[in-house]
Amino acid sequence: MINNRLEYQRMYDVERKLWWYQILHSKVLGHIRRHFKTDHSEIQILDAACGTGGLLSFLREKGYNHLTGFDYSAHAIDFSRERNLEVNFGDLKKVGEFRAGKVFDVICCNDALYFLTDEEIISALKSFKEKLNPNGILIVNIHAFEAFSGTHDLAVGSSRRFTLTDFRIYSAAADFKITYHTYWPFALSLPIFAVRQWQKFRIRNHNTDAQQPDSDVKFPGKPLNSLLLAVTKAEAALLPRAPFGSSLFMVFEKN
Question: At how many degrees (to 10) do helices 164-173 and 118-130 cross?
Fold first, then answer.
């Protein structure tokens, strides 16, 4: 995806309105507020592999003033700067080199670690831990379960998906602890699974170009988007920890 400007354009166009991003961003905000208890608008927040800056712009609107991000893609940086965000080049394989010596209260890394090997993920987690203040938190979202792979995975260059067991191993190796985790969206698992299986069927039968796949990061229209948002909000309220879903959301703290 690094050089796929079209995919970043799609993300930029929908990141502030698509139900999936709205839920993810609200999860991040909720855990920041829960961890720091009261209004901590002055806390230092880093979005690692920030993409087009949707999360940072959302947090800015919620009153957080000290926000920065990095991404490996020049396209992502360009789109983030269109939002007037402080975003610069950075590499998840060399996290320690980004603003060396600087520490943060919150580090977010959403849907990016799949570019790395197991060893590189552990190394990145260790670097994140070093960049966290003693009371800081790391928030990670990653796509889960191979059953949910589809054209989006191909479009963004993802070769694998993860489970909580994987990250328990990574966190132990990095001397981190996972203080919260949930799969999501649980309520939409069956329709997402059906869509992704249909996508793979089309690829196998050469009805979809596997070399230039079309991502499913698209706005489905206001009525359907509102319905999906309402269903997923209800799930988050009624089922804080779900056992299954196409994404895995986690909060880490130092041991």
Answer: 60
- pLDDT single digits (tens) 153-180: 666 667 799 999 999 999 999 999 999 9
DSSP E strands in the chain: the ranges are 44-48, 66-71, 87-89, 104-110, 132-143, 176-184, 247-254
Would you tell me how many other CB atoms lie within 10 Å of the CB of residue 205? 8
The strand pairing partners of 45, in sequence order, are 67, 106
Could you identify the residue written with the tokens 């901590």?
A: 40
Q: Residue 18: left (phi > 0), alpha (psi -120 to 50), or beta?
A: beta
Where are the alpha helices (H) located in 42-148, listed in sequence order? 54-61, 74-82, 118-130
Tell me, yes or no, if the pTM score tops 0.85.
yes
- Per-residue pLDDT tens digits for 213-231: 556 678 999 999 999 999 9
